[in-house]
Amino acid sequence: MKSFTYEWEAKVPGAFMYHCGTPPVLAHIANGMYGAIIVDPADSEQTFEKAREFVLVQSEFYKDANDLEDMMNGEPQVVAFNGKAFKYKDQPLEAKPGELIRFYVVNAGPNNFSAFHIVGTIFEKVYLNGYPENVDKGVQTVTIPPGGSYVVELRVPEEGAYPIVTHSFKDATKGATGILKITKDAKDQPLAP
Amino acid sequence: MKSFTYEWEAKVPGAFMYHCGTPPVLAHIANGMYGAIIVDPADSEQTFEKAREFVLVQSEFYKDANDLEDMMNGEPQVVAFNGKAFKYKDQPLEAKPGELIRFYVVNAGPNNFSAFHIVGTIFEKVYLNGYPENVDKGVQTVTIPPGGSYVVELRVPEEGAYPIVTHSFKDATKGATGILKITKDAKDQPLAP
Amino acid sequence: MKSFTYEWEAKVPGAFMYHCGTPPVLAHIANGMYGAIIVDPADSEQTFEKAREFVLVQSEFYKDANDLEDMMNGEPQVVAFNGKAFKYKDQPLEAKPGELIRFYVVNAGPNNFSAFHIVGTIFEKVYLNGYPENVDKGVQTVTIPPGGSYVVELRVPEEGAYPIVTHSFKDATKGATGILKITKDAKDQPLAP
């Protein structure tokens, strides 16, 4: 057994995927060897406005953790946000009516593109890779490639339950569905979950 | 049987998909329960230039309208613009040489990403989600996620037949192919078809 | 046998795909009937900074060159940069530490979207379709639709071997993996390979 330590200086602000580089990388990612890194801007002019923030990592799981053939040519059995199918359907993410909400969304793949959308809402601003200057406005759904990311911001004026999905609905049906619950009673919280 | 009425104020300009929210959403979208909404900018500074305008909705149909398993793990049998395979191949969309043409393109999915392209042309300007400020220039093909949209503008200087496709050619071959016919005889028409 | 000659004036700068239009287009692209065209800006204000430049075309090959059914509903057997699986894994593309590197990346498909990424690096700037004004910054992975392109720029400060992939790892595993070797001994060269 050997151990490695990676050290680096985070120079570029944004939301990034990290994953192990042990071959076969496809199998390692499909078995959960990844995570997200959020780098806040060092430059105060690039700093995002205060908001309620969430980090979501979309990823796929295949039938058999060792079946590389299925990962290469088959379809995933489960697609999840933060590692578990329908995790935030039973335990919704909460926010208050009208407040600024920011999602850092990383797509770990290993294979499928994400069509990130929150039903019943339109993103006010979206930032490709979370870089503050890469801004687009008024977007319903963003394309996030495996190994890529988007930061999206929205405000929801009315209370209710708004489904968080990849709008590639075969993957939403396999687990990449959660609930954003808008309620006056939402508790304050730091970067979550 | 129950009936619902949704009311909302359209605040964000652009091209949007709507679809029913009855579960399973995947099956409902795969059976045609969707449409497009075009919201013109209220702000005159954001208003698009006068053009010949078309609305296209790309979508997939599966072998069996009730086979959710096939929709989740199989391939579509038909991919169409505006509901019917090769609809505009026999009945081309017409425009005049040199005039500004604008397509509002919504991808209803439910699963596949669109690579929208018109063979023999380069889009002069493309607008992510149809928001007037989200402009890019000189683009041959745009990625449209399921549940997403693009507005694209072009001018075609010479008469001829220009194929409209998703450049993911397996889906073009299944029906997502039409013809943009450039002819001096193109009739004037409002937003079409 | 008949022969055609296409003539046109290249008016829009960027990286473009060309392919034959003989039906079935899907089969012709899947058999390699395509290429890339790089159009340099005529306007000196749009001209890219001097850099070490590479052109990569990603594409898929299917089991049987004549099996249209497999191309429409199956998975590719090989995915390659510049026509051959793992071409630049054994013969890495070389550049020097710290120098500006520019990749013109065209995705010929015919079907799959590319998630272009170079492991261990972040693109300084990316240009949708290679149009100089379509710039985004600090991006780890770009989505390139079949029939589309991106120009990406990076600098790598330290010597080493950096894998070039589509981060849709099923396709990387099938051959869309190369190596960018950063070494002080990299030879000067024109647009390559």
UniProtKB/TrEMBL annotation, chains A, B, C:
InterPro entries: Cu-oxidase_2nd, Cu-oxidase_fam, Cupredoxin. Residues 55-172 form the Plastocyanin-like domain. The keyword Oxidoreductase applies. GO terms for molecular function: metal ion binding; oxidoreductase activity. It holds the Pfam family Cu-oxidase. Keywords: Copper, Metal-binding, Oxidoreductase. This is Plastocyanin-like domain-containing protein. It comes from Tepidibacillus decaturensis.
